[in-house]
Structure formats: structure tokens, C-alpha cells
Known about the structure:
The protein is an alpha+beta fold and 435 residues long. The protein has helices at 5-19, 47-53, 82-88, 93-101, 112-120, 134-149, 165-173, 177-200, 207-220, 282-300, 310-325, 333-338, 426-434; strands spanning 23-28, 34-36, 39-40, 61-64, 73-77, 105-108, 125-127, 160-162, 224-225, 230-233, 254-259, 261-263, 266-267, 270-275, 365-366, 369-370, 378-381, 384-387, 400-403, 406-410, 415-417.
Amino acid sequence: MKLPLSEFVRRRRRLLRLMGRGAAAVLPAAPPRIRNRDAEYPYRQDSDFYYLSGFPEPEAVLVLIPGRRAGQTVLFCRERDPAREIWHGRRAGPEGAVRDYGVDEAWPISELDATLVELLAGKERIFYNFGLNAEFDACMITCLNRLRAKGRSGIAPPREFVALERPLHAMRLLKSPAEIRLMRHAARVAAAAHVDAMRMCRPGLCEYELEAALLHGFRAAGSQPSYNPIVGGGANACILHYTENNSPLNNGEMVLIDAGCEVDHYASDITRTFPVNGVYSPAQRTIYELVLAAQEAAIAKCRPGNSWNAPHDAAVRVLTRGLVQLKLLRGEVRELIKKESYKRFYMHRTGHWLGMDVHDVGDYKSGGSWCRLEPGMVLTVEPGLYIPEQKGVARKWWNIGVRIEDDVLITRSGCEVLSRHVPKDPDAIEALMAR
Ligand code: GLY
Ligand code: MN
Ligand code: MN
């Protein structure tokens, strides 16, 4: 499943319009990253670069120049090279870039230094994100100094460098129908993998065996993990970013799985917590149902016009009230919320934007107040409670860690839970695991 070329063309046109004449934008592809010695991490294109280009290769630079007669979109990329392609894989080459990616012009990356100066000469505003790619920052600074040197021939250097992320991330925050279809699919694939992991779980397996089921589900559908899966049994569920995934899964404990996949650079991000042996103990069920109630209250706040923070506030209210009822916190609910006492057991926020990046781009506040939810935004809703062994807490709660995370699209009438295909009702989970 992939986005059509027309989607990328539309995005470039939109940004060109927003930038206006006298401007240019420059975006480098992500560099390949070494894992150890000659082995690289799987290549992942930079999200901003991909959002505008759809181009999957490293060693490429996209330049957008509103109003340029010879072509407003220019891509620099690697040339075709049969000898290298035998070793390292196919390349589009400049010709293929124009043919398959719809840019107006494409040049060999080896010509970047000379040609970029020509493309940027006389531009007043350069849209670029400094600080993300040190090597390319240096290239931009060299280019700037060459532009300054042109001052003597009457071509003024740029007056402003503008953060490209301002307009671009505002665009990425609102998902188009085609993006939503991809994200629905990414959520479906991840949900099916979670269901597989629930089905196969039993005491005596190791965390990595459930991880293997997740990875199999992702890869068998042509996707890949959108982040390192978390599979934490028992006390490991209380470690928020636990990724060792190498402990046995014990009878009587729960396991927390936080795993999602990426389809054509769009992520899902799902968490479920279930009993290793298929049946929640009374204490586990109590905490689980409290987190579920908080999650449902938060999802009920996911509607257009509501503040970004409304789901979090709703979750905190339900959790704090519940913690008082269970005598895990003592005091008056309003006061405990004000003092953030719930942070002892709920130390993270209730969600984040979701999109090409798992923690996606987009503002959370604007002008000092929380942003309003709008149709087309996608966020996670992921309250949790984490109760490691500690003084002042009854032993029956020790080492219970629960998080329930769904991916939620804001729609015109409310919201759509994209990750709804993996059960979260405790009876439904028990029924699934009993089969
Ligand atoms: N899996 C990362 C997160 O839930 O934010
Ligand atoms: Mn998340
Ligand atoms: Mn997650």
C-alpha cells in the first residue's frame, strides 16, 4: 500500500504557494546510519523529505523554488551506476526521478555544491531546518558564504533563514484521506499482530517469543516496526521504555505489549496488557478496569473543538478518583490532581500526535494555550498505571503495570479508533485467549 504520486505533487504545490515568491526550501534525505562496522541500520528516509518527495533513496536533496520558470521542484540524487547497483541496489537516477517522482528537474548529487548556489542566488528567504543534520548544515553554511561572495556582483545574499518546519509540520498535522487510509491499514496490521501475540501467549514462553509473533505479523504484511517493540512481563511492565524483551513470562503475571508498525512511512502505535495465563487476577482486573475507564473517558473527549489537553485531563480525573478509592492515594481528588500526586503511578502524558513519526510533528500549544482538535488529526490515547514494589503500597498491587493505547482519528462528528481491531475489554481478551 503506497501513496499515489498525485499526493506528493499536491503537497509540493501547497508548500510552494505558502512560501511565496523570493523564497526557496532545501531538504536533505536522511543519511544512512552505521550499526557496527560495515553493517548499517535498515535505511529510513527522513519524514519531512519523504513527505514532499516520496523519494526513498539516501544521498538526495530536494529544492523547492516558487516561481522558477525552468521548474519549481528540483531533486538532486545519485546517478545510475551499474557496478554500484550490483552491490548496493537499484537507483532511480535523475531521469528516473523525473519520470517516477514527478519533480520538474533532477540533477546528479555530485553537482549539488555548484548548482545549489545558482538555485538560491537572489532568494530573500531560505526555508531550512538547521540542527538536524550536521553534515548538511555545513553544506548550507558553505552555500551561504558563496552567496555572500556574490554580493560584489550585485546579487544580494538571503535576508532570512526560516524554519521550514513551521509550515511543513502544520501540513503534516492534518492528514489527507489517502494518509488516513494508510494509517488505518497500519493500525489493522498491528492490531492483527497483537491478537496473534495474545493467542499464543502462555506461561513459560519468553517475552521475545511474543516479540517474534509481532515482528512476523508486521513483516508478513510488508510493513516494519515503527519503533522497538516493548514486551514486558510482570514487573517489567512498570519500566516505560523496556525493550530487552528477554525475560520468561510467568504464570499469574500480566504482560504489557507496546508495538506498532509502519506502512509506507506511516505509523501505528498500540498497547495492550493481558494476563500471561489468560485470566486476570482480581487485583490485576481492578487496575486494568481503572485504566480502561480512564482511556474510555479520554477517547470520549476526542472530538473537534476540544482542547488537545481534554483527553489527558479526563484520564487524570478518572485515574486519581480510582487511586483514592483503592487507597493508593489519600486525600481530596481535586487537591491530588492539583499537586500532580497521580504522577507517582501515572508519570507520562495521555498521548501524542501520530503520523509519519510515532511521536509525530505538530504543535501542542499555540499562543500559550493548548491547540484545538480538528478533523484529520491523529493522536494516541494511552493512559496507564505503574505500581512497582514500594513502601506504602499494599503488596497485592506490587508489580502491576498496565497501559492501554489506541490510535484515534478526529473526524467531523467525533473520532474513529483506528486500532479498534484488537480487543481491550477484559472479558473479550479472556475469551480470545481461551480459544
Ligand atoms: N511506543 C511509544 C509510545 O507509546 O509513545
Ligand atoms: Mn504512543
Ligand atoms: Mn506506544
